[in-house]
Amino acid sequence: MSTTGSGRPRLSLAAVPHGGSLLIIALLCAAGWLVKPAFLSPMNIWAVLAISSLLAVASAGQTLVIVSGNQGIDLSVGSIMTLSALIVSGMAGSSNELLPMALGTVLVLGIAIGLVNGIGMRFLGLYPLVVTLGVSFVVEGLALVYAQSRAPQMPGTLIENIGIGRFLGIPWLVVICALVAVLMTVLLRYTRFGRQLYLVGSNVRAAQAAGVPVTRVLLLTYAASGALAALSGVLLYGYVASANLSIGAPYTMMSIAAAVIGGAALSGGTGTFIGTMLGALIFSLLTNLLITLGLGPALRYAISGLVLILVLFATSRDAN
Amino acid sequence: MLRPVWSHSAFPAGILALAALLFALAVNPGLLTTASMIGWSSSQLGLWVVVLGQTLALMGRGIDLSVGAGVSFVNVVAIALFETGYPLSAVILACVVLGLAIGAANGTLIGILRLNPLLATFAMSFVLLGLTLQIRSAPGGMAPMEAVRFMNGASLGIPNAMLVFLGVLVVWSLIAASDFWLKLRATGADPQRAWNSGLPTARLRFASYMLGGGFVGLSGLFVTLCVGAGDPLFAQPYTLLSIAGAVIGGVALNGGSGSGFGAVLGVIFIGLISDVALGIGASPFWQQLIVGCVLLAGLAAVVLSGGWLKARNDRISREMLAGGGRT
Amino acid sequence: MALVLEGIYRSFGPVRALDGVSISVAPGECRALYGGNGSGKSTMGKIASGTLSADAGSIRVDDRPLAAASPASARELGVGITFQELSLIPELTAGENVVLTDLPRRFGLLRDRKAEAGLAAGELRKVGLARVADQRVELLQTGEKYLVELAKALSRRPRYLIIDELTATMHASEVETFAALLAEFLANGGGAFFVSHRLPELRRFCDTISVLRNGKLVFDGRLADVGDGELVQWAGGGQPDDAAAITSPHAGKTLMRLSGIRPLASTPPFDLELCAGEIVGIGGLPDQGQKSFLRLIAGLRPPRDGEAARIGDEPLPLGSSAAVAAKGVSFVSGDRDEMVFAKRSIRENMLAPFVSMKGRELPGDSEITAALDRLSTRHAGIHMPIGSLSGGNQQKILVARCLLMNPRLIVAEDSTKGIDVAARNDVHHLLRDLAHRQGAAVVVTSSEDQELAELCDRVLVFEGGAIIADLSRSAGTLSAQTIVSAYMRQERAA
Predict the structure, then answer these.
(1) Is the pTM of this model over 0.90?
(2) What is the ipTM of this complex?
(3) Domain topology for C254-493
(4) A228-284, pLDDT tens digit by residue?
(5) Does the domain at residues C3-234 carry the CATH identifier 3.40.50.300?
(6) Does B113 touch chain A (CB under 8 A)?
(7) A32 found inside a domain
(8) Number of CB pairs, chain A paired with chain B, less than 8 A apart
(9) Domain containing B161: what range?
(10) Residue A131: its chain B contacts at CB < 8 A?
């Protein structure tokens, strides 16, 4: 007990990183296989991985914001995704040449919206829930106005390829998600910003006292969340191959659920992107399983709600 | 000791609602005619009632993301019951009981099982949405004509929907005057200390969600009777609108302070700015952007002015305390 | 007839906080519950009041068992507690807080405001605070809050009361109010556990004592039978701190020049110089601008017009904690809510100030371990969350962090708050080391004048944001007595 050494805690079964999530994934796979062996066919596995990659990328920014603590949550993710999909669709249309400019535009826009969130949260002292909710109303309004001025078009070959195509047999979405995973993990674990983020999220007053530039960290976090949401809006557009006004909406709460199932505490200061990816995979596997069972959308909603409650119960009960 | 009116948490919302009302009157002088008031109140009644349920959840440091889905669920169940031939009284009872049951389910997850309120009620909204769509996937059905006519009518020039809402407010005043309310405020302000003080915090939070569910049930009933039909998606925006309205009305997101009356003023403000946006002739496509911007500005204004007013009020109180201590 | 705790075990994660402890208190008895940091004394108090559950063991109140671990059921049996961290809801009024759990009702549902006000005023009058009944608790001063906490605990007419560090932040007059109430409570057949590690107060209020050490009961008997030396030994070893006699070889060189300083907005500005190798204490009555002064030089409070500082030859960029830290200023506070990253590891907590310093390498694990060993800090590996340690050990880790920083100036705000005598001595030795051997300047505050007199080379007494006395060890003007008389003279004159 009174050791003063620097020995790491001993490895036990409960201490396997993300043990709970991996167990749930295994159970869902087993259940799917029992219902229909084709559930574990390569085709279906790639399909589930692709859609969960999309959700994982959409949850990347959310993870950063939740880790940043101080009641951090980003309710504007879905609306930014919608706006971004509509703008790429409207600006680039089926042209591949105009795509980089469209991509640049939505990224800048995403960063700007994220900064508005960050400024409202940090300088005006608004709760993130409130400010991102208010901003999402505005962004939805922008989307509506934009959609009115330019009709959405079918995506060009490049973006469609990213949405549903493959690279060396692996869906592009999975490849992109893997890249994002590497970037996020390096960012969180090895950079100054990552260390500062965990400190700010764990205790903002202590971070201030330790000389962490809290304002800069928080603004960067919300800006990054906006940019990542804009990026995932583009991916979503490629995946669905069309854009409409409600395309991104479900992703707001799904991204929060993925991050929390993956171990990010809503109280801040803990969480990893690998965990969020597993959370996204759980969500996607579950939906896929329910479709395999032949359930209609109504019952799929109801059952995924119930299962989400079970998962929450298993993974994230509030302390005391 | 009488507190000045500007120190009340609902004061900024009152000012905003008043300003919006004057603005709305300026662009639409006919706003206060009985016919216009009937249309307005019967279309808003559901939101006015449900924000009280949201306020109960927020007061105990919770939040309820399932109110929109809950109102829709009660709505389609009520229509289904009418179509099966149940009388109005039975349906009224069923709506309230159903609402209380939804609230009890949320309360069990959050109060007893200690799940995170945001995520638990989000999951619950999925369950309710699924059940709603299972019962009715598209708008349709009919409520009894005489009830619908009553809700869209007026007595002595006052819309019946408003009179009904006055009745709801009387129920609310009883809650706000109860010892339960004070204990819930204590629990929301600081759950650990409330528990240390010997309060049954789990039961209190359970009760806050269950009672809030009662308002969800009433809201579902009123939506059914005002609209006269079942619509699985009509009330979905209520969730976020009720949160925004409550916050504008001075209800603290971290629990413990605010009032139901303020929350109602908050949603009235939101309803009015939509009217103003339409009244100034904005195209429906621009309407949401305008409403969104005003809403965001309203949220910022209320939170900022609320903080400033509280700081000012606290300073004055402290000075008075210090003065009293010396004499 | 007694409150009896028998064979209590309790663990927090891997740490065993209580290891089969049995204690009891009888009516009319005030028993001290004493021990060092992490000895388990506060845990024991919380278990007796139902706030925490025991892993094993029994609690009996006048022969009735406490079945469920909840404060509500403990209250039913007649056990009350005043919490060190308070159980008052800041947003409610003092009166509402006092009667919160037994609100008088009309029609079984509604609040009876009139009866409520009468009840609250009656209870608050006992602690002399009836006038604040309608004020929100967040507006009260610290000492007043603790008195309201006491009134709240007493309002339920408990037969047994657990008093956890209640008097630590009270003024002398408030302590007298408490003393009178305690005497009355005991005379009426109440029994009390007095949890504290302040020896003079233990001697004043208690007749019997139970001493805990590392979760075990090491002494149980009459307080008169044990001497202070023994008590300190039990609290964690080591001798009582001797007043420092070493003078620093670095003393005399001016390290920091402050100008136009106004700790409170209403006071005239003053200038001040701080010397390398010197420990300067800031004393006086509570809330006289000490905190504001410390926070200014730590970069945690924006400077007022005209306030400026230079460290060495460079200006100190006040108003930015990051920039100030980069100039070699290290801040440590006894307010652990403001210092500790509870969810993160000990290592990350130690590294926190380095993370934001450009061009400075992070110290390695061996340096971290070495710094911790110098303060003989108990821990189960530097990758464990710091939140799993006792408050005192967390505090020592924060001070050890200053060692790693190699700072030019250390700003220590109440850095020994709530830690035991042995840990306090460790912290003092370290601060002296940093000042006298490494030539750092040290600025400290403390709520105990004795501590300032022991630790500091120079003490500035603040009153209303101004310096009213400048006492120094070398001039022979520094002692606890001179500090007290400096601010008491002002008090009497006012």
Answers:
(1) no
(2) 0.85
(3) Rossmann fold (3.40.50)
(4) 999 999 999 989 888 888 888 889 888 988 998 888 888 888 889 999 999 999 989
(5) yes
(6) yes
(7) no
(8) 148
(9) 7-312
(10) 296, 299-300
